[in-house]
Amino acid sequence: MDYEILMNGNVKIGTYAPDFEAKTTMGNIKLSDYKGKWVVLFSHPGDFTPVCTTEIIAFARANNYFSQLNTCLIGLSVDSNASHLAWVYDIYCRTGIKVPFPIIADMNGEIARKYGMISSDVSKTETVRNVFIIDEKGIIRAIFVYPMQIGRAIPEILRTLQALQVADSNNGMTPANWVPCEPIILPPPQTFQELQKRMLEIERDRSGMNWYLSFKQPNNCKLIENSKNQLKE
Predict the structure, then answer these.
(1) Which fold has domain 3-152?
(2) Where are the domains of the chain?
(3) 52 tagged catalytic
(4) What is the CATH number of domain 166-227?
(5) SS (H, E, C) the chain
(6) What is the pLDDT of residue 174?
């Protein structure tokens, strides 16, 4: 059997996120300690690297907006905790930005391999840029994978996170290019009677294209003020 297939976890959307205990820049943590909160777990190839530095700064600036969505950020790389500390201190000294979330020191790559963060076609040891959105029950809800030379778009991660939360709380779906608090898609009717009722609603409210595509204004959706401008600074 291929070594990478053997060692990498079979992590997919809809499965429980593998638990772990790890040393971080903020002390030891367990993923299971975060139950009841959403988690964005993201990896980076190495400390003191240019693209990763911009991402750490961007995540740090956005931390307040993730917090408003009941979400905690956790970073990870296979570098040592001492290296992480030196890196975040250098960022602080040069920018004044404090990194307010833990960065895991996964030196043996155990967590990275559990989550399939290492691609042997790119590197035998360095993680690629993975992002896992994990819900409050510990289930993986979204996965992003970026190549090593391309920085992540933090607003898109925030948008996806909020879309998942709004879809869950409204029993709906979000359309292409959805932004927070715009209308969401209703689940299609499952019986002919429901179809007829939906068509009457669409005709009355002008709320859709046809019975299989109709919209409603979501409940429990909040705008994160000034997040777009702040994230671009």
Answers:
(1) Glutaredoxin (3.40.30)
(2) 3-152, 166-227
(3) yes
(4) 3.30.1020.10
(5) CCHHHHHCCCCCCCCECCCCEEEEECEEEEHHHHCCCEEEEEECCCCCCHHHHHHHHHHHHHHHHHHHCCEEEEEEECCCHHHHHHHHHHHHHHHCCCCCCCEEECCCCHHHHHCCCCCCCCCCCCCCEEEEEECCCCEEEEEEEECCCCCCCHHHHHHHHHHHHHHHHHCCECCCCCCCCCCEECCCCCCHHHHHHHHHHHHHHCCEEECCEEEECCCCCCCCCCHHHHHHC
(6) 97
